[in-house]
Amino acid sequence: MTIIKSKISRNQFAESARRTAARSMRLSLQALFAIALTFSVGVSSQAQSSSVLNDSYPDRYTVVEGDTLWGISAKFLRDPWRWPEVWQGNPQVNNPDLIFPGDVLVLTFVNGQPVLKALRRETVKLSPSARGTQYGEAIPLIDPAAIAPYLNSPLVTDQNELKTAPYVVDGFNNRLILGSGDQFYARQIEDQTVEKFRIFKPGRHFVDPITGESLGWEARHLGNARMLKSGDPSRLEVTKGHEDINIRDRLRPILVDEALPFFAPAAPQNDDIRGLILDTPNKATELGALSIVAINLGDRDQLKTGDVLRIKSQKMAKKDPYTGEKYFIPEEEIGLALVFRTFEKVSYAIITDSNRQVTPGDALVSPKAE
Predict the structure, then answer these.
(1) Which of 21-30, 70-79, 119-128, 140-149 has the highest mean predicted lDDT (pLDDT)?
(2) What b-and-e string marks burial along 151-180, b requiring 16 or more CB atoms within 10 Å of the CB?
(3) What pLDDT band is residue 165 in, cutting at 50, 70 and 90?
(4) CA atoms within 13 Å, Cβ hemisphere of 194
(5) Among residues 350, 264, 359, which one has the least CA distance to residue 309?
(6) Closest of 291, 301, 328, 323 to residue 313, by C-alpha
(7) Which of 71-75, 89-93, 248-252 is predicted least confidently?
(8) CA 310/CA 295 separation, integer angstroms
(9) Among 37-46, 138-147, 176-185, whose mean pLDDT is lowest?
(10) CA atoms of 231 and 345, how far apart (whole Å)
(11) Can you tell me whether residue 1 is helix, strand or coil?
(12) How much is the pLDDT for 247?
């Protein structure tokens, strides 16, 4: 009996050992699976967050004179318009969005998300108050030279202003064509306290190619003038002439000297926004990077300076060479345009990138649009 009892105990022990081993193996496999899953999720999250980054993004970059925010964005991001998603401004300055030559931009990851910060070269005293900055020294979004002529000129006017704006009636000493330094007389200046004026004449008539709606007239900036003696007529002097100034040309008061705007690239508020590139002044049919275009979108469409739009080629009807049937070439993405000045119904944008020619009539959509 004793021998039989001992044999049963050994069998029971062996079965218990097998069960323990199997349970341990299941626990080990579960733990291994959990670790693998956690790692997989971490890698997936990292890959997803890094999808906004350029393939060859630097860990850090020192800003130099001549840099633009768009160019710097392109060094780090696949889509430069997504800059606000990764930028963490310096809280020690009045405007944390500003970047200056000498700043060192450092790329780090916070909770798996890429974050860009600026390290100032100068010594900064930490205090509760904000530190003042000079806007004129900040890095602009795009090259100011490319858009300067479009910043401080009237650009877009309407029929009412064309009828009511002050106008040139006579040149001093009966001059008919005026330029820099010439004096002239003007009428219909209601506010006699205004000292500076811009002189313009109507140019292109903007018409929506889809609806036929009048969007306004482009105001050609002819030059600037200053008040010498108020009255009716008032006497003024041309301080800067870009084109010949003639009798009947109009004046617009300069109430505030506009400076180069500081803004960051971003997608429009409305993801469903859609517009078109309008005809160009010289009727150019081929446009490319750094070309300035007028578009049929404006303030009423909630468009803002800094908004970026994708350019899509026109959907075109074609004839099949064999069957004779009509088919359509679909819209294709061909570039990006950045809005730098807006009016009620029209805005001006600069083409920042293009992979083939852009033409009037090409479509504009949000970069978030499918």
Answers:
(1) 70-79
(2) eebbbbbeeebbeebbbbeebeeeeeebee
(3) very high
(4) 20
(5) 350
(6) 328
(7) 89-93
(8) 13
(9) 37-46
(10) 35
(11) coil
(12) 95
Give residue-wise pLDDT tens across range 215-235. Answer: 999 998 999 999 999 999 999
Tokens describing residue 288 = 């490319």
- Is-contact 117 45, C-beta < 8 A? no
> Strands 60-62, 104-110: parallel, antiparallel or unpaired by DSSP?
antiparallel
User: Could you give phi then psi for residue 46, rounded to 5 degrees?
Assistant: -65, -45
Written as six digits, the tokens of 349 are: 């944008």
Amino acid (one-letter) located at 103: D
> Can you tell me which residue has the tokens 């060479």?
321
Two tokens, residue 197: 């004026």
| Residue appearing with tokens 């999808």 | 51
- Cα(247)–Cα(227) distance, integer angstroms: 17
Whether a cis peptide bond, with omega within 30° of 0, leads into 233 is yes
Within 8 A by CB and 6+ apart from 281, the residues are 203, 204, 218
Q: Tokens for 276? A: 């078109």
* CA quadruple 62, 121, 64, 71: dihedral, nearest 10: 50
CB atoms within 10 A of CB 368: 16
| 164: amino acid identity, one letter | T
CA–CA separation, 99 vs 263, rounded Å? 11
**Confidence band (pLDDT; 50, 70, 90) for 123?**
very low
Q: Give the separation between CA 107 and CA 86, rounded to whole angstroms.
A: 9
User: Residue 119 is encoded by which pair of tokens?
Assistant: 């390290």
Strand partners, 227: 236
